[in-house]
Amino acid sequence: MADGTESESRKLLGRLREAMASDDAGQARLDKITHLIADSMGTEVCSIYLFRDSETLELCATEGLQPESVHQTRLRMGEGLVGRVAKYSKVINTPDAPSAKGFRYMPETGEERFSSFLGIPVQRLGEKLGVLVVQSRDAREFSADEVYALEVVAMVVAEMTELGAFVGEGAALSPLHQQSVLLRGGTGQEGAAEGHVWLHEPRVVVTNPIADDPHRELERLNEAVEELRVGVDKMLEMSQNGDKEQLQVLEAYRMFANSKGWMRRMEEDIARGLSAEAAVEKEQSQARARMEQVNDAYLRERLADLDDLSNRLLRILTGQGSNSGAELPADPILVARNIGPGELLEYGRSLKGIVLEEGSVGSHAAIVARALAIPLVVHTARITTEALNGDHIMVDGDQGIVHLRPDDTVVTAFRDKIAMQADAQERYASIRDRKTVTLDGKELSLVMNAGLMADLPSLDSSGAEGVGLFRTELQFLVRNQMPKRSELVSLYGRVLDAAHGKRVVFRTLDIGSDKVLPYMKPTDEPNPALGWRAIRVGLDKPGVMRMQLQALIRAANGRPLTIMFPFVAQAEEYHMARAEVDKTIERERKLGHVLPETLEVGAMLETPSLAFAPQKFFDDVGFLSVGGNDLKQFFFAADRENERVRRRYDTLNVSFLSLIERIVERCAISGTPLSFCGEDAGRPIEALCLAAMGIRTLSMRPASIGPVKSLLLRSNLDELRKIISDARHRGEQSVRPAVMAWLKQQS
Ligand code: PEP
Ligand code: MG
């Protein structure tokens, strides 16, 4: 095929298809394919390397290299030219392989005799499957046409691999998606769960990568693209008055759907013998590979749009809708690249666990998962390409680990862990109604964090004494449009009803930074966490804040009401917000609404500056709650959303504990009620140390109340305080080692 004509290309694909249709075993098919490609390309060598596991490439078939090296030669990802092609999903085309960067000589293959090298990644929808290589003795660079032809062939090899065409006895490969794999991600929500995979977006299966009638395929492609365009136009029409960001995405869809370059490449793929589906997939795979390489956030987003659009096109072509017809298993573990909070709420508590390929700890989906107490692992690379609907899966949200198709030893160990957790839950249930009094007689109040109606039943089951933080923004985040005041009145009213007189601290809208309302104009800020967020938005644009205050007052309808303002950085912000409350009360009184029986207004201490506010602030404020998640991020200058740094600094670092100590002292002078409501309040060791520093109210996820209470009941805070002081005097950076040693001694 040195002249690279389309008909040559089609002829080769036709022969490949015959090889695929034969009754041969997997290995024989592979051998035949390498032979056919070498013959057709006029090269001395053609080799296929496939992944044995996610890191190891194995030479699985060759024409021209030493036959003994088949299934013997293995390379790690990134090793040698072949490993580099796989790692970077990049074509390597060189006339002088031994001098090329990364070349590694493998004597068993006898490849030193071959000078030119062309390696093409074999991948399908972002899943790296292997590398296809041709080599020849003469030092020449392969032409663009030859590269293109081999890319088309690589696509077919990818589809065949996916369809299991090379699986078989002997040294041939074991089928894809059947091995047991361990994937590491990040903790989104703690807890362990076992179940079966439910793909939010099922994989599209292409059974016919090769087609003989390019005209028919072109027609099919054109018809599908037309349907796609009409669909996108319709979506655009319907969203004209809607969210701007969504409009931008749709505009990008329209641009791609009308892109001549995209169409032309797919038409060329078809002219060379690919079916319409395989042509779409080829372009999509290449876009995904590019996505891995680019750092520019805008470009990545656009490539993600293209990916999404290609999926739609594939679904039109294959007739496989996003509903695969599969039934939701009894114990579904949702697997998705990402998922919106609304969609997640629709699944609700039916899910046993969630694994996201992307997602982030502070994403809306993570917030909802947390509210529903569903174990969640985020940032789990490859999960959507590895997992198939119905696969057995175990999710360890504590460690951020996912076992897909686990083997028996893992299953046993994991079930032991779940059983231990269940035992612990039983033990916690037995102390649920006990007061939290430590061995040295200190009484604490354990309350819970909430944000959705779905949280409220946990108030009874966990034994929480009230809701220490009700994140009102969740109701705003899970909707497509701003909720109406009447809806908020009804919701807050139901929350108070469900609390049966227990205190509920309603935090006013905390938006901005990582929490962006889908229907609000996005602000382009260089540093959103330090930007226009929470009370800053509330004071600058008081309309929404007023509406929320009114809704709270009306919902209380004569009952006690507690309101808390987030992210107060200086006293004046609190005073201005407090003045809004007073004005709203006055207005509501005039309108004839019943006013709350009692009204408490407080602030969150989330910036170090507030800890050093004038003492008068501590006198004035109704109560304070330390938002440890934000306070820590600003105290250590470590982004709470950034996996690289978010665990870098210990809450038990003496600097942070000194800050807490200072806040406790200042509140004590004024008699200001103080609580702590960041995630650390729900971690037993951290909670214990916060209690030792003098915090008496801890607000946490409901599931944490049992473990935290259990440890507090067994502890002497005075003794622990001394352990902490001694460690500080010894000059230790974190008191954790000393605390752990002390705890060990106790048990
Ligand atoms: C905090 O910052 O600790 C907090 C409780 O608020 P959020 O996590 O909602 O920012
Ligand atoms: Mg906060």
From TrEMBL:
It catalyses: L-histidyl-[protein] + phosphoenolpyruvate = N(pros)-phospho-L-histidyl-[protein] + pyruvate. The keyword Membrane does not apply. Keywords: Cytoplasm, Kinase, Magnesium, Metal-binding, Phosphotransferase system, Pyruvate, Sugar transport, Transferase, Transport. Its cofactor is Mg(2+). It is found in: Cytoplasm. SUPFAM superfamilies: Enzyme I of the PEP:sugar phosphotransferase system HPr-binding (sub)domain, GAF domain-like, Phosphoenolpyruvate/pyruvate domain, Phosphohistidine domain. The keyword Transmembrane does not apply. One of its GO terms (cellular component) is cytoplasm. Its EC number is 2.7.3.9. Residues 25-171 form the GAF domain. One of its GO terms (biological process) is phosphoenolpyruvate-dependent sugar phosphotransferase system. Its main location: cytoplasm. Belongs to the PEP-utilizing enzyme family. This is phosphoenolpyruvate--protein phosphotransferase. GO terms for molecular function: kinase activity; metal ion binding; phosphoenolpyruvate-protein phosphotransferase activity. Pfam families: GAF, PEP-utilisers_N, PEP-utilizers, PEP-utilizers_C. PANTHER family: PHOSPHOENOLPYRUVATE-PROTEIN PHOSPHOTRANSFERASE.
